[in-house]
Amino acid sequence: MVFYRKYRPETLEELDSEEVREKLLSILSKGSAHALLFTGPKGLGKTSAARIVAKIVNCEKLAKDKKLKTKNQSEPCNKCSQCVSITSGTNIDVLEIDGASNRGIDEIRDLREKVRLSPARALKKIYIIDEVHMLTTEAFNALLKTLEEPPAHVVFVLCTTEPHKVPPTIASRCFQVAFKKASRVELVRSLTRIVKSEKIAIDQDALSSICDLADGSFRDAAKILEEFSTKGRKKVTKEMVEQEYQISNISSYIDLMLGFLAERDAKKAIQLVGKLIEQGVDMKYFLEQLIFKLHNLLLDRVGVIKNLQTSLSFDIQEIKELTELLTKASSQLKFAVLSQLPLEMTIIQWCMQQGTQVEDEKKAPVTQTVQDLDPSTRATFLSTVDDIWPKLIEKIKPYNHSVAGLLRGCSLKNFDGKKLEVEAKFKFHKEKLDETKVRVLIEKVLEEITGEKVKIAVVLKV
Ligand SMILES: [Zn+2]
Fold first, then answer.
1. What's the alpha-carbon Rg for the chain, to the nearest Å?
2. pLDDT, position 248
3. Distance 44 CA to ligand 1 centre (A)
4. pTM: predicted TM-score of the whole model, two decimal places
5. Distance 52 CA to ligand 1 centre (A)
6. Topology given in CATH for the domain delimited by 3-178
7. Is residue 453 within a helix (H) or strand (E), and if so which, with residue range?
8. Which residues face 459 on adjacent strands?
9. pLDDT per residue over 385-440, tens digit each?
């Protein structure tokens, strides 16, 4: 079983975020919560937390302890039949509903009917509605009626990655818990749990590096740790992590990139991006490091820190503008078809706009348009990313209709020229695509299209 599933938190104590732990504890200790709204990005443990809530509400041991008032216990026992069946997903009174595929009025009406029935075995029925923002307006209205007069035997846990799409009428009836990206300290805490249990030999520094790479996601951190744990029995060091993720010589690239940006040299900057991609440098990490460096420069300019060894000529206004652009690029990264695109766009925008010292004639001529780039850079820039997906489906059809149909049911998650990541909505789609025969066919067609060896990776939509 993969780490992040195996080590899914089973108690409040095991949740990554201290803020979430405390908030839940305070809500649940009052004992009257009928509806909770969990908000925040994917991979931060909303569903796990929802299950913990279900257990705390229904744990047989906890109920007994409370009745006897023996202990001020707040964690589920994870041993009684209620806890065990919730963990295994077989508890008939704990219903997990995917808002995306049950978004209509009929489904919610059906739910309203069933909500009235008492739980079969548990103390309370728990409805966990994932991606609740996907519900239609009519469905929301129907749900609202239930939330206005919730039966005493029901607890709703609504989860969403897009809280702004949840109507205020619904949100205001829920206790809201915001799941935020975990800090490095919180991630290290969570990974340490896995390291101990799996007896993985790893340096503390290496663990920190992994947590930096994971960018606040426990799921990602656990995945990276798992990669290293399966590599053999050698102790994992910081150097190994840096080598694997090509982050060791990044600092020299950071300086180089900032130098090009200071000169507003789009061509050299974009060529450098190409080189980074070739070497497998993680763009998110690179962008973050650029922003960190600019932040240090800013502190240097305003005199907060001293002795920063740098020859970069940015003034405060330029640092501010560039930081804003890079921050924007970083936030666009997860929707980018090509991971280098946001940075390349930033480079173009930055280099095309005049510097703040407009009158400065010493400045090198500015690259004006994409056409000014050398042909190979331009090719990368304007590559066929947008149509790789339709092309792939089209070209596969003559070989195998059903694979083409299968791909149509999936979506393109990422393509960086070397690896094409496909997101499958259903497990059986993923399984089919993972078959060697199918994989070989897809990779062959991808090579026909791009002229390069491209690997395919299939991930399951979560
Ligand atoms: Zn229990």
1. 26
2. 58
3. 24
4. 0.57
5. 10
6. Rossmann fold (3.40.50)
7. none
8. 423
9. 667 888 888 888 888 878 888 888 888 888 877 888 999 888 888 888 988 888 88
* Residues of the chain falling short of pLDDT 50: 356-371, 378, 381-382
How far does residue 22's CA lie from ligand 1's centre (Å)? Answer: 20
**Sheet arrangement for strand 154-160:** 94-98, 125-130, 154-160, 35-39, 175-178
Tokens found for residue 393: 């489906």
Residue 171 Cα to ligand 1 middle (Å): 29
Ligand 1: centre distance to CA 371 (Å): 66
Cα 84 to middle of ligand 1, angstroms: 7
Q: What is the pLDDT of residues 257-313, one digit of tens each?
A: 999 999 899 999 999 999 888 877 889 889 998 998 899 888 888 877 766 666 777
Q: Which residues contact 29 (CB under 8 A, 6 or more apart)?
A: 74
Q: 250-371 in CATH: which number?
A: 1.20.272.10
**125 CA distance to ligand 1 centroid (A)?**
15
Question: Ligand 1 centroid to 98 CA: how many Å?
Answer: 25
Domain 184-244 has CATH 3.40.50.10860: no
Ligand 1 midpoint to CA 61 (Å) = 5
Centroid of ligand 1 to alpha carbon of 63 (angstroms): 9
How far apart are the C-alpha atoms of 307 and 166, rounded to whole Å?
50
Reduced to 3 states, what is the DSSP secondary structure of residue 442? helix
CATH number of the 385-460 domain: 3.30.300.180
What the block records as the tokens of 199 is 């007896």
Distance 153 CA to ligand 1 centre (A): 18
Q: How close is the Cα of 62 to the center of ligand 1, in Å? A: 6
How far is C-alpha 48 from the geometric centre of its chain's CA atoms? 15
Compute the distance from residue 57 Cα to the ligand 1 centre, in Å.
9
**DSSP for residue 80:** S
Which pLDDT score, from 0 to 100, does residue 359 have? 40
In the chain, what are the domain boundaries? 3-178, 184-244, 250-371, 385-460
In the reported structure, the alpha carbon of residue 112 is separated from the centroid of ligand 1 by a whole-number distance in angstroms of 28
